[in-house]
């Protein structure tokens, strides 16, 4: 599969004129007399892309070894095999594209023992015989250089990569790449999913969720309440925008309570930042805050998101250990590899996220109530937990269209600091929270394969797209920064405006693409693989899930306020910390007394069934994943891409391992066979239909 070796993918816009080829210092290189750069020049380069250096080489580490050309540009490093030609059906240039911001480690090798780690600003001390490019997405590219007088080119292209990386780290000026293909075929390009940049997008989504008690607020339309919040969000009908403005000022970074998702049974899932206890609200402000938190319900549960979940520093450290362990030259012995994997604690953090998401899903689906996720910043684990709860509770979120809309709403529009968390700013607050979320989704896909319309390959494409500098989706920290960079605020209109032939931002600003424009970066054949062939159409949301499900959901206790901590519900006296005593959520959870862990499961507590009765019946559409021991697995196709010898064997070097793999495949085949007839296999699906329809 192409996902086994591909990470970053780039768009190719044909150029009428050949790009100028220069050395690292900018002097013009002589035209090559062979085919060494033929494939690159015939397929064209990205707009604004310049070739800095090139050298003939041999791709190593995979069988068979391929001869070709290693090329360094001001955007990327790419390896072009000899004889490679760009297909007319795909804008991809190569399976070996590495964006400069995606290169995590660069090594030069000479002989058997001479290895130099090259950081931005380093000076190469010898002519390399081989270089190793380690991607932050766990890929590896090994290129050996030919002898016979071409060594200077090997030195030159290696130093070009070093210097290009240094300039990339210093400037980080990726304004988004505009493709000529984006304007072909129509005068205006509609985004594949609603980008939630307009009032109309939010209103349509509100009606789709059936949230009748909520409205779209315009109080942050000019980002004067919070730059990290979207321009529009949902608040209760009875709350005025003037009350919203005052109430939000008493929450950290102005991120007050607002609706994330309305459950068809009547419950509401909210998210907000931590209380800003240094403020001094009056009685009217407290009343408005309580009304927003209650959201019209008598039963309210406050969930401290940070409780039992890893900190940002924990996530970053675990991911670094995981990357080091998965490197081909890892010093860990094979017989100690699994214990070393356990020592990274990455799978422990995946397990804790799924466990807490399962508990919150029970809170949302068991009774009609308001469930409020509260995190100090409201920009990291709130988004992770809210997204997982919706995936567990809503079949619609498990479709291709629904999942993309979920990520756009809970991560992109909600202001997750992608650039900072993925190390794009050089700050110390790096932590791949979004990648942890994708791993959790992959775990759900493995456990409930027939429930998801999208496949593992779609998750890999999304995983690899977080460091692709051709869109602004994951390259900014806030909606305000994203809109400012795209020129959206020059005329105060959205990027995609139906009915306009071109963006209304002036001639200097071009149409900006989103990461969801898959057809501009992937071929139709690749997009078809985004679809899960084992998806059961009976799980389509419209086929079973009426908009109201009051028959299985009961009202919560009257006028009750609860704190959910360590799997147990603890009653509280008030919602806000400015009344009789400080709220529990106003203080770091690590300093709070912990309630005893209940011997009964949360599901048993919520549905009022004693534990000795056995498992309680679950409402339709709710998934409760397993998270004990071997139920949480390593995402091998993603994390072990730099070890092709392991990929070929799928981590099954023993007879027992092969038997386990075979049993798993046979089980999947038995599940899928009744639903897939020969006629289904022969039908060709339209990739645009797959990506634009939820069912």
Automatic annotation (TrEMBL):
GO terms for biological process: phosphatidylinositol dephosphorylation. Residues 1-33, 676-695 are annotated as: Disordered. Residues 196-639 form the Myotubularin phosphatase domain. Residues 677-687 have a biased composition (Basic and acidic residues). GO terms for cellular component: cytoplasm; membrane. Pfam families: 3-PAP, Myotub-related. Belongs to the protein-tyrosine phosphatase family. Non-receptor class myotubularin subfamily. PANTHER family: MYOTUBULARIN-RELATED, MYOTUBULARIN-RELATED PROTEIN 11. This is Myotubularin related protein 11. It comes from Sciurus vulgaris. The gene is MTMR11.
